[in-house]
Design goal:
Blueprint (H helix, E strand, L loop, with lengths): L3 E14 L2 E14 L3 E5 L6 H8 L7 E6 L2 E2 L5 H11 E5 L10 H11 L4 H14 L15 H13 L5 E5 L7 H16 L4 E4 L3 H4 L4 E6 L2 E7 L11
Parallel strand pairs: 3-8, 3-9, 6-7, 7-8
Antiparallel strand pairs: 1-2, 1-4, 4-5, 9-10
Helix pairs in contact: 3-4, 3-5, 4-5, 5-6
Length: 238
């Protein structure tokens, strides 16, 4: 049985801008296995955002095949894609995307609410996840009462709430100072060590070094796909 979480086969995505056709992805084929930690890099306009939107089932390929786990999601309609997103994917954004009126626990509960979980069950899951990401003493705080690093921890806990097939992170340290950014990357390292599949878009090679694999795009195609050496934060030879 295949352990692939993602399989792209000759995926293309074009956009019609008036009379101009823009080829954002031009035949991308790749496979990501369960438990991998992958960084996606490349210059502005290379197709990173388009690739992330397809991986997150926020859009559909113009052509080609996209298997998410054991399901071909290439031709699903918007409602079906929404169901897949809610049940199988977790998202972490640069700007956190928290609901300011809700507490830490309530923000983490949001995906569970849309999955129809019982209130007591979702509250227990959310509180456990808040503790897991180091926010056990902030359960009733609202986002404006938290630092940027703490808000991103809430976002990570929310991404974990539905036990997703994979977590997609878009420049997750982009709005953080270096200390908070390092703490978030250490949390990602821990999650991957626990078996979570992580796909992270970044411009920063220091961030990408945490991952086990780097895929670099250029002009809508895969320019490079390499395995990274094991992450060694101390920079000391084993």
């Amino acid at each position: 049985m295949s352990t692939s979480v993602v399989q792209f086969i000759d995926v293309r995505k074009t956009y019609q801008m008036g009379l101009v056709t823009v080829e954002a992805l031009r035949g991308v084929s790749l496979e990501i296995e369960a438990g991998e930690y992958v960084s996606i890099m490349g210059p502005s306009g290379c197709g990173k955002s388009t690739l992330l939107n397809l991986l997150g089932c926020l859009d559909r390929p113009t052509s080609g095949c996209f298997n998410l786990g054991d399901e071909d999601v290439s031709l699903l309609d918007d409602d079906a894609l929404s169901t897949v997103r809610g049940a199988r994917l977790g998202f972490v954004f640069q700007s956190y995307n928290l609901i300011q009126q809700l507490t830490v626990v309530e923000n983490i509960e949001v995906p569970l609410y849309y999955q129809g979980c019982h209130e007591a069950e979702s509250r227990a899951v959310a509180e456990d996840l808040a503790i897991r990401v180091g926010l056990g003493d902030r359960l009733r705080h609202k986002p404006f009462e938290l630092s940027g690093g703490q808000q991103q921890r809430v976002a990570i806990a929310r991404a974990l709430a539905n036990d997703p097939l994979m977590i997609l992170a878009d420049e997750p340290t982009g709005n953080l100072d270096s200390t908070s950014g390092t703490e978030i990357l250490e949390l990602f390292d821990q999650l991957n060590a626990q078996g979570k599949t992580l796909i992270l878009v970044t411009h920063d090679p220091n961030v990408a070094r945490h991952s086990s694999r780097t895929i670099r795009l250029r002009d809508g195609v895969v320019e490079m796909d390499v395995r990274n050496p094991p992450w060694n934060p101390a920079g000391v030879n084993p």
